[in-house]
Amino acid sequence: xxxxxxxxxxxxxxxxxxxxxxxxxxxxxxxxxxxxxxxxxxxxxxxxxxxxxxxxxxxxxxxxxxxxxxxxxxxxxxxxxxxxxxxxxxxxxxxxxxxxxxxxxxxxxxxxxxxxxxxxxxxxxxxxxxxxxxxxxxxxxxxxxxxxxxxxxxxxxxxxxxxxxxxxxxxxxxxxxxxxxxxxxxxxxxxxxxxxxxxxxxxxxxxxxxxxxxxxxxxxxxxxxxxxxxxxxxxxxxxxxxxxxxxxxxxxxxxxxxxxxxxxxxxxxxxxxxxxxxxxxxxxxxxxxxxxxxxxxxxxxxxxxxxxxxxxxxxxxxxxxxxxxxxxxxxxxxxxxxxxxxxxxxxxxxxxxxxxxxxxxxxxxxxxxxxxxxxxxxxxxxxxx
Length: 385
Hints:
Elements: H1 4-14, E1 22-26, H2 36-47, E2 51-56, H3 63-68, E3 72-75, H4 84-97, E4 101-104, H5 107-116, E5 123-128, E6 152-155, H6 158-167, E7 174-177, E8 205-210, H7 219-227, E9 235-240, H8 247-253, E10 262-266, H9 271-276, E11 280-283, H10 293-300, E12 304-308, E13 324-326, H11 331-343, H12 345-362, H13 365-381
Parallel strand pairs: 1-2, 1-4, 2-3, 4-5, 5-6, 6-7, 8-9, 8-11, 9-10, 11-12, 12-13
């Protein structure tokens, strides 16, 4: 029986559209961990017959990985959004390279790349990984996602697509939900960090959260949930990320009888090892996010997640099958979900297993490659740039 990768290869070779495409990608690949998924599906697209070129910041660690796969790396990335000279540099490259498609992954690339593509016969695709903040009455959005030069938008979650469809009133780009896949083998060698290194007792039930401080992460609601847990429940929380010990969170900590059970680790390069050491992963986000990467990573490690039911993450976890979903801004619901996992290790173990299987079967890089190639092919069949 053919494997999924074999099936993908056959599908791509049989298509007359994919091998002839020449694609220029502009993105930031300085963070090797956060960009891992993107690199994997771009290499998959290149190996499937399309010619991919990558424009990114100089001296990126991932440039060698691209080059090893036969992908040309152009060491340049826009430093701002409005530089005419930078737009001209990209435009010259597009003209000389005769690219069929330009894929732009961040704000600087989008603003600069859209101007560079003006009047050229190249399809322009944007990436969107956030729910909201695009509105048909906001004039600035017509410099990016509502720009008439946009041919297609790759959305990381269905909620993102639905929001954009609602506000694409005067422009009609092709919009498609294509998640950034992962590979379980990336996590095979991750070993849990010893509890002693986290100042957590071996007997404790350990929750972990990985995030950087932003209002949408909902950290105060998680701290309030910790305050609602029974005092006799030996539950510890480890928070990994920049700035999570904000003023509001610190004020809430003064109300807890056990502040020693909440641990602020700051930014860590071994975040996966901390998550692997935990009994459950918790994500209290209140808005905006779409398929949160840290949740996918926890699920890939086989750690059962507790997540709020915000639009961008609503399809990631199947409630009581691959994790627990709770309403947003509801500390009591969060506390009840934590106690369910605390009291029911069989449910927790089953959800952890099913979470990993869900990533294996529904959120893998091969699926991203296949879906994106199909999207590119459909765009190429539309007449006119």
